[in-house]
């Protein structure tokens, strides 16, 4: 597809070790829907840059471990080879691996927990993909979120896993004036634009965001463009609504919107003006759903993750043209019907 | 179908503007499963009556705006024309439009929020209807509830949307004696009987309830009868269980039961004694699920909406006669099987 | 199948009353996937033993009432006869019947509540089984959990049902040192091994657990073996993670794991080394999900029930060999497409 990576692709196909590395890099790239090894490599570069800058190198190491473990799990489960080779068994694991050290602590037991979680993310991917294939819709990063939410919540009950980086439980409160009135400078807007992208891998770093956009450019100009469009629209709408400025500046309100914009605008639909308008609307709904999850998860201390992207994108992929819904009329064959109606139904 | 509306139907079919109005009125009627313009018009009359009486005219205006926006959204998405003409793209939007001004405040931003929510309800309808068509079951008002719950929760995070009419978060507490021991007079029972109906559109008004029953009568005598049966059974059972008398009197415990009764008793099954018994049981379960949602939503300040109706009615529409469930026996083709079993499965 | 029960089977087939008893006993047995009347009878014996020992005979009586009510409901709904005869309409009801008197109180109204809940569990079984049949996956005990969670939560709103045995709502807190450091003696391990089994029917009793294992042995040696394997692995892993020792000793962390082990290791997959490894992994995930539900349900006072088993087993049954997921590529026919694309799609 992309000519830049052609020499590598030729080599990777012939060598078992390189092929394994290639599969893993593509897994990293699939977090933003790009089965491209160079994109995936640049994602990892960006993750290491941001993790080192924040003195949280375990996040980057976790990402690599999670990526490899989930990919190997996919191999051991006799999964479909073609889907394997383009990285579909790795993109949830790399996120699990970045998320656990971000929110949890705990030495050796944490790493065992991470390995189990990354392997479980592949099981979850196969399960969720099977269910949603019924409606021609992909699993997206729901398997990551499922594993992330389940394992983070469970950690409260385990002494050997620490949950100190999860916020304390509280009832949802309406946001106060003070959380909203910060100075909106050019540098704030610039940082937010790219941190909305970097936070997809749980990294809060402008340079990482720029690296990620370049990584997208390598694979697809449309993807890079829609990433920035999604980021800008999310930023504008959430500033207009008046959300927490610290969270906005850290890219938390935009990460899901960036993914929704790439998914709807450049991956699952062919770019067009209609699709552009549909995508913009999808981004607005993603911003709202991020607010939803922040409130809904307040009492149980969970982060929203990429959940808003998943729910919004499913919502916008499921409607079909000329779809005929079930009518408000008699449904035959229900258990409430009498024996006679059985005869009628059979006869 | 109904001869009363025949002259109108003939005119409406020939004029673009009248056809658009007709489609919207039927959308209003479909909240209680009646694709009938006069029913829908009377619903709107009842809403305005109740909203004006309570000095909350924005609820009625919101209902009309939500109705029109969601219908237009359906048109722009190239939806199925026949389903459009009987109002299936409007019944969630009209509820979104009545609900937002009931629970939120906020000037211009609220109305933008409402327009986005109403448009999103049509996307959600197409998505939910697509999923549940798999089992021959309709979307009901789940799209409204989804949008309502999502947008209300999100509003906590937005300074420009006020959530002052949502109750404060709290843990579920067992109801105290004081909340239950009110005087049960004839006027209490009479008001409750009809407020159970009026609250479907978030209106707390006896006259509105009577107008709604008349609106049902215009389209279907069975629907009107089952609405009152559902209301009476809900009232009786919840008084016997000992629930909050203020909530009962305001029609909150009955609104979902009325919808369940109409749906199971007169719309999706053909009326019969078996179906009547099944419907009564469905109403009892609806009452319980209302209690469930009141408790479950206590920590996150959400109203139950018509959620109890949706969950109960799905539960009672999904069982089929002579259905053969998956047995407790070996399932072939699982990812846990070895390569040999692949051979066996394929061979 | 099992020669021990052959004489009984011959008699039961010829007499209406005995056949009804046989159907009910098999319903009891199906809680652990055994359509075997002797297994079911021994389960009931174990329940009565444990309930009498704990002065909570109502739990055992409730179990029998729930079993009979749900089975009769299945008959009245013209359910599939073969599934009926092997007990598939009773296994959720027997659990509902044991659970309600465990967590609720309230005289006559409680028993009416229990009868409604048990009947609703059969409706819920037919509904859930219909939905999950789409992916070739059984309903498991999800219908029980659904009814249990719904009716327990609702009880907070009803004066005539007491919820004094449900814990008070609280935000999830990280477990303290004190809850973990108990003395782990041989007798603690022995008791836990069998209470993990007895708690499946909400009984906290070592002898009951032993009776349950014998009951499994009657029907399937593999089932009995995997029950003990699941129990041991759950115990070991949760002690290593450092969970609440009182809960572990009462069998709460193992009950779902025992069911997962029987289901994956001996029922739905044919025993093999691959399946054994897969099952062990499934048990680990079950233990984590139990922790998840304990945290998630803390604010709303709910018990986890057999929910962790259901979610983990679904997760491990849904992945298929050589499954081809939806690719990250254009999806045709979406509502966002223009009219032209309609033409293209149709042409």
TrEMBL record, chains A, B, C:
Cellular compartments per GO CC: plasma membrane
A Pfam short name: UT
Main location: membrane
Subcellular location: Cell membrane
Membrane topology: Multi-pass membrane protein
Keywords from the named record: Cell membrane, Membrane, Transmembrane, Transmembrane helix
Transmembrane segments: 41-74, 86-104, 110-132, 139-159, 197-218, 225-246, 252-269, 276-294, 300-318
UniProt GO MF annotations: urea transmembrane transporter activity
InterPro entries: Ammonium/urea_transptr, Urea_transporter, Urea_transporter_bac
Sites marked Important for channel permeability: 306
Domain of life from the UniProt record: Bacteria
Family: Belongs to the urea transporter family.
PANTHER family: UREA TRANSPORTER
Protein's name according to its UniProt entry: Urea transporter
Species: Rhodococcus qingshengii JCM 15477
